């Protein structure tokens, strides 16, 4: 394998980074796992996690860093928002045979539809949509918890707190969910407001399982929160379909529990992904040596 070239895909998120190594004919050689690789955490930290994952994947194949010059690499990284982000990420990279960097949504969409037209809608702690239509990427939403992320776990948690406080003020019904939310956050409105002062999206998202559990028991307030979240996701689904995506993949930790809450027309557009974000990154890496497979929404 001294002169053979390899293809490597990287999927870097806010909590972990994954790498997958394949031969030119697609044989899986190794996989590796590293730490957080969102470039907003700092490029030094992101590259440390990326290289850790890459070296673990290489080690499974009996290779080491001396193989870097034979790696065609595709990366989908959280935190890449602008073309300048791609440039500065590549500028700090080691020397590979070739390197493409994109948003993690772009590579996830590539993998889900094997490079064909389609769209993904991520419903996790945050939410975001992405479509590839006629080789062009289209990003929708995903602008952050403060101004976006409708239908997400963080949004569901925030709504649970809102209705819990309204129930305390006798402005809306008191249920098992509203009582539990107040208890979790200290009991009193003052304690809840103190919690809110230091809370981030993940903290709000940790309340989503409570909403799901109470909805399964028929709690009216919990059911209303999930119905609202589903309607918010349907706005994205309708728009992505109107852009030209024939089908969509609903992804993220809330994709399965929220699917039954979607309208029949929305569920009819959903399909299972053909591959994951790593396969999308590998597809991008293969095209490094040929023609670009698709233009990013950042282009």
From TrEMBL:
Q: Which InterPro entries match?
A: ATPase_BadF, ATPase_NBD, Euk-type_GlcNAc_Kinase
Residue ranges constituting the ATPase BadF/BadG/BcrA/BcrD type domain according to the UniProt record: 8-283
Q: What is its EC number?
A: 2.7.1.8
Gene3D superfamilies with a match to the protein in the record: 3.30.420.40
Q: Name one GO molecular function term.
A: glucosamine kinase activity
| UniProt keyword list | Kinase, Transferase
Q: Does the keyword Translocase apply?
A: no
Task: Supply the name of the protein.
Answer: Glucosamine kinase
What is the organism field in this record?
Nitrospirillum iridis
Q: Which Pfam families match?
A: BcrAD_BadFG
Q: What class of enzyme is it?
A: transferase
